[in-house]
Amino acid sequence: MNLTDDQVDAIGEVLNMAMGSAATTLSQLVNKKISITSPMVAISDVEQIAADFEDNSIGVMIGYEGEIEGSSLLVVNKTDGSIIADLMMGGEGNPELPFDELAMSALQEAMNQMMGASSTALASLLGGRIDIMPPQVINFDEQPIVESLKQIASGNEAVEVLFDFTGESIFQTKLVMILSEPVAQKMAAMAVNNAKAMIDTEESPSSSSTNAPSESPASPPQGAGTVSQATGNITQTIMPPPTYQQENFQQQPGGYPQQPPQQNQYNYPPPPPYGYPPPPTYQQQPQIQASQAQFQQLQPSPQGDSINIENLLNIPLELSVSLGDARMTLKDVLELRSGSVIELNKLAGEALEVRINDELIARGEVVVIDENFGIRITEIISPKERLEKI
Fold first, then answer.
1. Phi, psi (rounded to 5 degrees) for 73
2. pTM here?
3. List of residues 6+ apart from 2 with CB closer than 8 A
4. Which of 21, 55, 113, 363 has the most Cβ atoms closer than 10 angstroms to its Cβ?
5. Which residues contact residue 220 at a Cβ distance below 8 angstroms, ignoring those fewer than 6 apart?
6. How confident is the model at residue 252 (pLDDT cuts 50, 70, 90)?
């Protein structure tokens, strides 16, 4: 596999920031501090990778679309996968959780959220559109890791990235990402090109300033009274102070001659003193003819201010009766089966709420009419309040 040291370093730096975003997303999902840091990038033999992770490991296959096309494989210890799945289902991180379909579904959702955040960070870092396909969780006890590696590696080598994966005091392990050669090559090329573009952008102002033509110092005017003083190899020319002819000039107290007034035949304003900015110039705007808007006099309605409520009585409204509600964790929702009983926050015999368009207007009790349920109103607001709420 042809990857230079700069490309290997670029892959490690980019994945470090991308997986940092993935760790932040997992932290928000499980309400625990998760960190994924210190990537170590190496080009490893496929058979050696398979031998290292053949037993007691779980894989997550991730496909990339957009600027990067290909696949990568995340490998984690099965015990750590059970911990993440239990945290996703509202537990405390049980390492002995059986890795069944429920745990696999919870781990797949965690990886889907993590790698979604990672692909967004990659797209921002590399400057291109990068999407992922839904991750696929693979139990290597059922499907050997060699088959998954054959889907990624085109030859006998693959890029192996090893991360430190910690979750507070619950687990501390290694997370392995295996990249195919096309994914690694494209990721490295985009990272190097993006870095070069940033460097060129930073250097462009300084280069333009250095390429500006340098002004050569003005040579002293030729005239009488110049004195040359030699010190070592440097010759310094000392000029005497300037002299001014006093005719037609009036001496000021500071010792500087007063300049004669200049002719101003076009009535331009006088120039500003030396060292002050020029006065602003204003362009005369054309005059706009504006007139007051005229509106037609409104005439009172022949029917006055009365509202014909008969026109509103046929508007359909949605009525609903609230039996109660409950808060459940994701674990409890996933464990629901036919015959499960959910406890609500309403007491037996407590009045139920009657709502119109989600606005509470009455309370009542459940009755049975023939074979249908009904509700008998026991408390209701006034018609005026009902109309205001609706």
1. -125, 120
2. 0.52
3. none
4. 21
5. 226, 237, 239
6. very low
Query: Is the CB of residue 159 less than 8 Å from the CB of residue 41?
Result: yes
Quickly count: other Cβ atoms within 10 Å of residue 15's Cβ. Answer: 26
* DSSP labels, 80-97: HHHHHHHHHTTSS--TT-
From CA 323, how far away is CA 126, in angstroms rounded? 52
* Between 250 and 89, residue with greater pLDDT: 89
What is the residue whose two structure tokens read 């460097």?
Answer: 199
How would you classify the pairing of strands 136-139 and 227-231?
unpaired
Contacts by residues 205-213 (CB-CB < 8 Å, ≥ 24 positions apart): none
> Looking up tokens 């200049």, which residue turns up?
262
Tokens of 58: 């779980």
Domains in the chain with CATH codes: 5-195 (3.40.1550.10), 318-326+343-390 (2.30.330.10)
Query: What SS3 class is residue 64?
Result: strand
pLDDT, mean of residues 177-205: 80
How do residues 103-146 score in pLDDT, each as one tens digit?
889 998 999 899 889 888 888 888 888 888 888 888 888 888 88
- Return the amino acid letter for 38: S
